[in-house]
Design a protein that fits this description.
This protein has 137 residues and is mainly α. The chain has 7 helices and no strands.
């Protein structure tokens, strides 16, 4: 077996696949997860009732919307922007929902990826931003 064909020098090997060392890009459809969440909880004729919302979020929908409005006005982190690739970032609804779910259920950050498409590294940032904004308000 020819060793030269198997071995690649370290400088030619790809070190990582994403923008952070050791992380790989996972295409998450933020628009689809936002639309799904809106259909489930926030749109007229949503899948889940107000009682379901209250049980799952531990607050009434109008309290959630007031909180969303207030943090959106105070902290630019909760305003939806375009990323460097021109794709929309997470919506304010997604950010507040993930942070509240982590707080309410003591959910680990990696469990938010499946439902909301938010990476394990983004969830703690979102949680911290929400907590700091609530204290500020």
């Amino acid at each position: 077996m020819d060793v030269a064909m198997v071995y690649q020098p370290i400088e030619e090997q790809r070190q990582w696949g994403g923008s952070i060392v050791g992380c790989f890009y996972k295409p998450r459809n933020r628009v689809m997860t936002h639309a799904n969440m809106m259909n489930n909880y926030f749109n007229p004729n949503s899948v889940y009732t107000e009682d379901d919302f209250r049980r799952r979020f531990r607050m009434r929908p109008h309290v959630f919307k007031r909180l969303l409005h207030d943090v959106h006005q105070v902290n630019p982190y909760f305003q939806q922007k375009l990323n460097r690739a021109g794709r929309p970032s997470f919506s304010p609804y997604q950010k507040v929902t993930v942070a509240l779910r982590m707080m309410t259920y003591a959910s680990p950050a990696d469990s938010m990826d499946e439902t909301y498409g938010m990476s394990e590294s983004t969830c703690p940032d979102t949680f911290a931003e929400l907590c700091n904004t609530i204290v500020q308000l």
